[in-house]
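Worked example 2:
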Amino acid sequence: MDAPTKRRHQPGGAHPTRRKVVEEPFHPTAPAVAAAAPPSHLVGAIVEKGFSAAAPSSTPRPTVLPFPVARHRSHGPHWGPAAKDAGKGAGEEEDDEMDMDETDYQSVVVAAAGPVRRKERKGMDFSQWREFVDDTPPKRRQGKPAQEKKQSAQKTHVGAMTSKVDDAAAGERELEEGGMQLYSGNSREVSGAAALVSDMVSKKLMTKVELRGEMSKAGEVRDATLRGEGMELDGGELSIEAEINAENMARLAGMSAGEIAEAQADIMNKMNPALVEMLRRRGREKSGDTKGVSRDKGQESSGSQKATRATPGDWLTAGEHSGNSWKAWSERVEHIRSCRFTLDGDILGFQSSLEKQDGKKTHAESVAERDFLRTEGDPTAVGYTINEAVALTRSMVPGQRVLALQLLASILNRALQSLHKMDKIDNVKEMNSNDKFDDWQAVWAYALGPEPELVLSLRMVLDDNHDSVVLSCAKAINVMLSCKFNESYFEISEKVLDHGKDICTAPMFRSKPDVDGGFLEGGFWKYNTKPSNILPHYGDNDEEEGDEKHTIQDDVVVSGQDVAAGFVRMGILPRICFLLEMDSPPVLEDYLVSILVALARHSPQSANAILNCPRLIQNITKLLTKQGSMEIRSSQIKGVALLKVLSKYNRQTCLNFVNHGVFQQAMWHWYRKASTLEDWVRSGKEQCNLSSAMMVEQLRFWRTCISYGFCVAHFTDFFPVLCLWLSPPMFQKLSESNVLSEFSSVARESYLVLGALAQRLPLLHSVEQLTKQDLGVSASYIETWSWSHVVPMVDLALSWLYLNDIPYVCSLINVQNKNTNHMLEASYLVLVIASVLGMLNSILERISPDDTPDGKYCLPWIPDFIPKIGLAIISNGFFCFLSTDAVGHEEYPSFCGASLVQGLCYMRCQGHVAVSLPSVSCLQRLVQLSWSVDRVIQGTTKNCSELLKDSKTGIAGKILGKGISSLWHNDLLDLLTSLLPMISSQWSILQNTEMFGRGGPAPGVGFGWGACGGGFWSLKYLLAQLDSNLVLQLIKIFSAAPRVPVTLSEVVNSDNMTNTVVTASERISSVLGVSLIAGPGQISMLEKAFDILFQPSILKCLKSSVHGFACNMEVLKAFEWDITEDEYLLFSSVLNSHFRSRWLAIKKKHSDKYAGNSSSINVPKMPETLETIQEETELTEAVNQPCSTLVIEWAHQRLPLPAHWILSAVCCIDDPKGKLSTSANYILDVSRAGLIFLLGLEAISAAPCHHTPLVWKMHALSVSIRTSMDLLQENRSRSIFHALQELYGQHLDRLCQKYYRSQSVKKDESAGVASLEESREASSLEILRFQEKIHGSYTTFVESLVEQFAAVSYGDVIFGRQVVIYLHRRVEPTVRLAAWNALSNAYVLELLPPIDKCIGDIQGYLEPLEDDERILESYAKSWTSGVLDKAAQRDSMGFTLAKHHLSGFVFQCSASGKTLRNKLVKSLIRCYAQKRHHEAMMKNFVLQGIAQDSGCSNELDRRYEILKDACEMNSSLLTEVQRLKTSVGQ
């Protein structure tokens, strides 16, 4: 016995209390028992490996053994029911567990030989159904005594008894929904099931639907019968429950109906009604009606809410943390459990409640009935659930396994396709009107969830020994990992983004907000599963500890959190390595390498697992070269992509690939003799497609190595082949051969490689320093490109700037052809032009860096190609010359009035994402290059500038000397004007991407996160990021350009310029919108946004807007305060510093022993330099230091930012632990500047700030004074704080009015459509739901705020106004109760301001009347304890509030509240009797709501009668009521 088998057979294991499940071999000596089984179980039934063919069993369950690595599927993990001889001793059990041939199914064939011969008939006549089953079906028994049950059990047929014992053993291992909890189940009577089927089936031919319904009903009757009479134990004895049940049933049988009713009434009278209801509910649950109970509860709580069909309004966003939203989503996902699918993956329907079987997994009886129905001619008529398909993957028949895998792949693919088409906003009307809309988001979430255990099943099937099964399994895994959609996303991002970095696809969730962070959302992202759970452990050292540490249960838990991590943990990598070594078919190779690429993109830990897997990288390298020099396979292309992805994680990994020859083997195509472009075209469309895809991936691999500073010297080796793709070709021949896109892709990647090489150039005027100093880079080297190669490359690139020679681009400029086909072809060439512009800009960056301060870096001379680049931009129609005085219309008549910028703007606004992305990318690089040309030319010495003006370039040369910015103003201003509305619409959509603090509802990878439209992994999100980056560049250029007539600090008032000039408020709003769009890896973009947003000029503009806003507001008083220039600089500095440290900081990770070298991957170490050594600073500028990684992790960072990120400065939460603050007043300065900035944004109605929920703004003001009152002690900050309170009070009143109107609309059934829309809008209003929207433990925060108010406020009015807001009627009852109790216990109710000085309208605190009993009792307790005595004297709002609500409840409550009313009245009158000074308070209580001059004696008499009635004939209390009446009369 080998070691794994030995370990498997050890008793106990990690869970000694669980029963060991072993596999019993088939014995040829039992043919009679097998033959006695009904033939219905052999027709189309699923036969499990290791199961008796005569006894269908429940779904098999895994043992607690660790998952085997790269073994045959017959070697484990062992699945099997408890054997019928499981009661043997330990010695006998060990004898039965000997290793035997588990594929010996001779007994099955012998047993099934007789019945199977019936299939030779042309048609099967099921009218003789009774002949197939036992002739003496047992009678249906209800409530019979135990003796009768024993007698009937002894008469049972031998075959039926055998099937009962087998089913009882099989039912001992069942899996609950929450996890793999093993328990001893009840036995089943298969013979009874067969008899019930025989009773219900008539001799007439029945339809499938009728037969299906009858079988379902029969199954429920059988289950109810078994539950009613109690199940027998193994020895034929009855359990205690069964004996008690038999006695009860016998006693009830001897009672008449009247006696039973009398006994029931007697019990009802003696017991508590609540206890009776509880017993009834337990009885319903025991009788199996748990679904009905839960359904009733669901209907009571959610009303008419249904989960069977989702509407676009049901999509849940990041801000919806309420229990109702989570419950609705859970119901949607759980509803998919009963969903049936066709073989094509379409939704066929849903199981009825009779077929759900209480949510448990498919039993053998239902599987047999289902397969019986399918033999009638239409196998797919009933359909499959996901759980049934998973069960079918474990069938013994290879064809059934293939069918199940193809079905699962179809379901997953259909769900991905539907998610890809879903657009939450654009298709909302269509989806509302479509009654057949299917909830594919819930389908995807359920399939990848923990219940189906799909990862475990697919991993098992991958060990199959049938090629067709393995191929289908690889395809299903490929779809499950979203390989197609993720690679499409990365393919497009490689084209349009220039940083060359990839984003990890592992599923993520946000860390929960805490009180130190002010409860603000937007915490650090974390992996769904810990990185230490991903990496498997290989070697013999872990075998002995495997049973104690790692079990299949652990693997299932990890796969439920992250499917890719589950596959890696279950050892899929060694299995893929083995399949690649076995010379698999090309299609299987393609799927396997795609799976490896998806796993490599998952996380650094998964990439390390691939690198550490023995022989895996060697097999991939062999795959690249084994097919010869001419044939190219798709698997080879993906193999190069895998090497590229792995290289991006770590610079050391890339260096190892280079040193071990992996790079040379991957680039073998580029060492061949260069052929002509005509030969490439003549090879055919298919060959051109494969060769171009291969060259593109090889160039990207090379570009990755160049980014690390490696393989730069290979430029001379690869240039003969590279030069074929650098010059513009004969476009007509390419179009005729339909290979334009293939050529464009190779040309684009070639120039991107040249751009990466240009970044490895030393600074042009610092070459001398490189020869004198050592670079000092540890453990590696840096290669630099030579400037001698630059000039020829620039000449080749300039040939692409002659737009007249590029057909489709030329037509785009001149005619602006709106043909979609031409637009798509033009987008291919636009990407090539964009890569050319990017390469030229990279060269200019190494002449004059962009980050160099003005005037510090002076160029003594510039190369000759710099003016050529500028002249090419001016002369070839990139910008419009129409309004330029220096250029007449006769100079360039062909381009007068038209430009490439206008054509690209049209492409962007055209709407198609595939066309918009290239246009924005080209615009961005055109703006960068133009700005770089102006910077380089203007940075030269005066002599060089004069020489350029006096050259023979004519007017274009003069314009170039002045700067290209003199030409681009109109075009770029129009571009900026058109982009700003797009930014404002994009950020609002993308803010709804997160779901319950997660990137998506499913634990897939990348696109498989399951968000609508792809969420963060959609092309629309990528387009929004490109737009935001372009907007930032344009705003930066306009703010720095000297010729721009309107700067950021100016506000345009003239009406004739509103259409062409962007105001300062619009620019501020756009920058704020850009901040909400930025994702991981765009920290540098956000730093630029913060630099623009927190300039002193912006603060000055906001300050002037605040003064004008205060003057126009009726409630706000015009306050005068001034800010000095030093304060502007201080506020600008502290705001920029705060937001960078609060939102852009990367969380430091702890060392992980399983992560290998991943710590060096994700934490780049910057070279340490001393500021006093000037030489090292110059050296850093001379050579671009290579980065340590080209991969961006979602984890350990906060982007994308939440909508309320701007409130963090007001919350003063920059550094709660005091680690970063440089001075004692730093936090106070941040809060002061944050208040000014927030009020300025409110004054200009900046869109993101304006759309921030009011509850967050109110909360931010409370946080700012929770720990200190320093903010309110300064007059300027105090006035700003008061102004914000007044502003938010008006906003609160407007929301309350909308809410009241929505309530009236609900009462009025004849409301119009507009009112219904208003009602729908108001129903989603977030009105001061602090505990629901901010944090579940918000009451603790309120209590701490009240403690601060009691300790240091001394009755400060503004502080009191902020505390009083938590007593508003639109606040949750729990928060209101906590605030009142805290104020009452601290005896500070008298310090609250009068109610007319509170935030918002008075009616918001008084109406509607309080109906919460706990709050009313708390009001009465404060009244009677004397806490309100001083509050009544000082006219505090605390007394007004308690008096109003207590009086309203006592004198206006309904009959249902009479008990509480009497209790409150007694307490108040007793207090009045004991405390004479409460007379005035009681007078106010009685006269509340009655005008003094009205003389409503009738109302007073009614109130006195209510008080007397509440006294319940208590004479002393009645005396006090009479005394009160006399006092009021006086």
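The longest helix spans residues 1275-1307. The chain has a mean pLDDT of 75.
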